[in-house]
């Protein structure tokens, strides 16, 4: 399990030509043992969804790939490029012990379905890793992740597909709903970290009164006046601008690093003076407000990379990087800037990934984060 992975990116929209380019870039494949399987981690820009089956067929034949996992996205990440607004594909292949991997190829929509898919491979109380891809229409995703965290010894990373309606996932074949991915036994060495893209404003605040996803009263005051007091006079004069980069953070209980999940403020009712949030709310719980911040995102990403490198003293075989659609060129200034930081921190390793509608780390669904999973 020390053979390095190999990765490549190819722009274009013709499946045969894309496969030819990827096969040429990846080069001659090493001989693998009888007990090994070859897995391809593949991400395609959403215009290629109609060609996915044809592309998989070409790659399976040309590279001897046993299993595929991945999906579609509005923008994809390769070892050297971030591809926006153009068709393309990025692929990383690596070898694993056949007994240590199982593809979750039947899309699951309930925790019980996931347990059934892994029956005979991973018992819920047996440590294991899950690399998940989720359809953005899967409303049960957060509930499933919560149950994974509460009822199993598994650790999930991954992301939610992005792009035009109808984007598909890849799990050996092609599917279009639910959650798919790859399950790994704990003899596959992995390190994982995540990086936030925001700076918390001072203090935490109590949700005094809520209704579904509406903040009615905050810290005992009507929500909107309380919010204006927190963000200050300048931002309060232009709420539309403020909502562009002031977000709500939900602190992670028990975190010793001040970790939090971010959700958007999706609306303001000026007459009722309430705020609508992109998550169901519980009265009495604590929130904080955070500011999208390009420099803070860069600094935190560099810190995360230093930490995760320390978890891989014997080297990195390959990497998966899932970043929020609100990061990338929107937060780091230009295309490729975020990837350049990652590759500088890791040392130019085989890497693929995509820009997601939500990022999965440690059995939780995040926003505005970058999630890095290393095969060490």
Would you write up a description of this structure?
By secondary structure, the chain is of the alpha+beta class. It folds into two domains: 6-196 and 297-375, no CATH class; 198-292, no CATH class. The chain has helices at residues 15-26, 52-63, 111-117, 141-151, 223-231, 233-236, 239-242, 294-310, 329-332, 337-346, and strands at 6-11, 36-45, 67-73, 75-77, 82-84, 88-97, 101-108, 128-134, 154-160, 169-171, 173-175, 179-185, 190-196, 198-200, 205-211, 214-218, 221-222, 246-251, 260-263, 265-269, 274-277, 286-292, 318-324, 351-356, 359-361, 364-366, 369-375. The strands form four sheets. Strands 14, 15, 16, 17, 18, 19, 20, 21 and 22 form a nine-stranded antiparallel beta sheet that branches. Strands 1-6-2-3-10-11 form a six-stranded mixed beta sheet. Strands 5-4-24-23-27-13 form a six-stranded mixed beta sheet, with helices on one face. α8 (294-310) packs parallel to α10 (337-346). The protein is globular, with a radius of gyration of 21 Å. The model has no long low-confidence stretch (mean pLDDT 94).
Counted beta strands: 27
Oligomer: single chain
What proportion of the residues form beta strands (DSSP E)? 35-45%
User: Which class of secondary structure composition applies to the elements?
Assistant: alpha+beta
Whole-number tally of structural domains? 2
Whole-angstrom Rg: 21 Å
Mean pLDDT: 94
Please report the number of helical segments. Answer: 10
- As a percent range, the share of helical residues equals 10-25%
Categorize the overall geometry: globular
Question: What low-confidence regions span 5 or more consecutive residues with pLDDT below 50?
Answer: none
Distance between the termini: 9 Å
Main β-sheet, in a few words? 9 strands, antiparallel
């Amino acid at each position: 399990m020390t053979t390095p992975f190999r990765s490549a990116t190819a722009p274009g929209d013709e499946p045969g030509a894309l496969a030819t380019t990827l096969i040429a870039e990846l080069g001659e494949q090493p001989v693998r043992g009888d007990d090994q399987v070859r897995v391809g981690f593949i991400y395609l820009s959403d215009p290629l969804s109609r060609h996915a089956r044809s592309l998989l067929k070409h790659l399976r034949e040309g590279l001897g790939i046993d299993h595929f996992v991945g999906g579609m996205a509005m923008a994809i990440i390769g070892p050297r490029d971030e591809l926006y607004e153009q068709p393309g594909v990025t692929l990383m292949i690596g070898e694993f012990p056949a007994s240590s991997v199982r593809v979750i190829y039947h899309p699951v929509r309930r925790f019980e379905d996931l347990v059934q898919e892994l029956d005979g491979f991973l018992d819920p109380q047996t440590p294991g890793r899950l690399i998940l891809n989720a359809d953005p229409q899967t409303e049960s995703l957060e509930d499933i992740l919560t149950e994974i965290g509460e009822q199993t010894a598994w650790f999930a990373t991954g992301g939610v597909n992005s792009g035009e309606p109808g984007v598909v996932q890849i799990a050996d074949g092609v599917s279009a709903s639910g959650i798919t991915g790859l399950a790994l036994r704990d003899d596959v060495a992995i390190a994982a970290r995540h990086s936030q893209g925001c700076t918390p404003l001072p203090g935490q605040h109590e949700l005094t009164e809520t209704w579904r996803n509406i903040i009615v009263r905050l810290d005992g005051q009507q929500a909107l006046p309380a919010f204006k007091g927190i963000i200050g006079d300048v931002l309060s004069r232009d709420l539309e601008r403020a909502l562009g980069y002031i977000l709500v953070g939900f602190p992670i209980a028990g975190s010793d690093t001040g970790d939090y999940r971010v959700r958007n403020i999706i609306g303001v009712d000026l007459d009722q003076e309430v705020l609508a949030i992109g998550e169901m709310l519980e009265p009495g719980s604590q929130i904080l407000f955070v500011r999208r911040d390009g420099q803070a995102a860069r600094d935190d990403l560099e810190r995360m990379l230093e930490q995760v490198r320390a978890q891989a003293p014997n080297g990195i075989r390959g990497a998966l990087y899932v970043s929020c659609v609100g990061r990338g060129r929107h937060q780091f200034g230009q295309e490729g800037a975020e990837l350049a930081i990652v590759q500088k921190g890791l040392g130019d390793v085989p890497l693929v990934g995509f820009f997601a509608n939500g990022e999965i780390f440690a059995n939780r669904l995040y926003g505005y984060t970058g999630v890095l999973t290393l095969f060490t």
